[in-house]
């Protein structure tokens, strides 16, 4: 059998991330809760699919989809929840089928992952996630009705899948300058920072329903006059403003576009820093604005964005190659879902 160390090395950083263990834990811990929460009868176990003779069980599907299901149960109810759960389980089954096809391809090629690679993986998990306490690690597995042997087997499969994906997806090709430039033209917004302003505002109610609109407009003009004469905007807002930001001196903090009503936004985002606006008559009220600071709204040049674009296009190409490879495995396989 051929030693499969080289492809493994290429992905070791990805597969050896310690964040994977809590995913296992979440799946096992969720299993009994799931059966309690669902009001619909569920099959305890059975065949969910057969892949070239290998069986995938319902319990395996539920284990994989459990973290996603837990999130869905906090977000949806009723029929929407049931539809989302069914979708999550279908995706989990698809993933399990793809994994099984990859492992079968690994065995067909007579590759082999050395045992010490898995042992090192387990050692790293114990060191990083359990403070080096092997007994606590083993007891945690036992509490989840999961043996150390089963855990090692799952880790071996995880390593195999990652190694085979790396082995079959070569990324040593060059993205043409034309493709990079085309992507930049079509997605300039991805390289543009959000435009924000730090805003203060005074609002004087028009009170048109009481017939006192003229007096209120005169008040707004008086307030603007005080500001023009050097009055502090914050103190003036605390005295005269009638909106919810009065106590904070009309402070709206940092805001982005689409926060204010369009007429107010047009004024605010086109004002120079430190400038006080004229009176803005909008929806029966009078507004005076001041922009204290601005940031964002700048776009990276093509030269600045080139490296990021190239990296993304390489990743996209690798994903497409991987999908075509998996599709070819499916096409050659006998797969039956129940």
Describe it:
This protein has 338 residues and is an alpha+beta fold. The chain is 59% helix and 14% strand. The chain contains twelve helices and nine strands. The chain has helices spanning 5-15, 20-37, 58-75, 78-108, 115-129, 134-143, 148-168, 177-186, 213-228, 233-240, 262-270, 302-332, and strands spanning 2-3, 47-51, 54-57, 111-112, 196-205, 251-256, 280-282, 285-295, 335-337. The strands form three sheets. Strands 6-5-8-7 form a four-stranded antiparallel β-sheet, sandwiched between helices. Helix 8 (177-186) crosses helix 12 (302-332). Residues 5-41 have low confidence and may be disordered.
Termini separation:
35 Å
- The CATH superfamily of the largest domain is known as Porin chaperone SurA, peptide-binding domain
Low-confidence stretches: 5-41
The fraction of residues in strands falls at: 5-15%
SSE string: EHHEEHHEHHHHEHHEHEEHE
Largest sheet: 4 strands, antiparallel
Structural class: alpha+beta
Question: What is the residue-averaged pLDDT?
Answer: 85
Radius of gyration: 31 Å
Q: Provide the CATH architecture of the largest domain.
A: Orthogonal Bundle
CATH topology of the largest domain: Triger factor/SurA peptide-binding fold
CATH class of the largest domain: Mainly Alpha
Q: Let me know the number of strands.
A: 9
Query: What's the overall geometry?
Result: elongated
Strands ordered across the widest β-sheet: 6-5-8-7
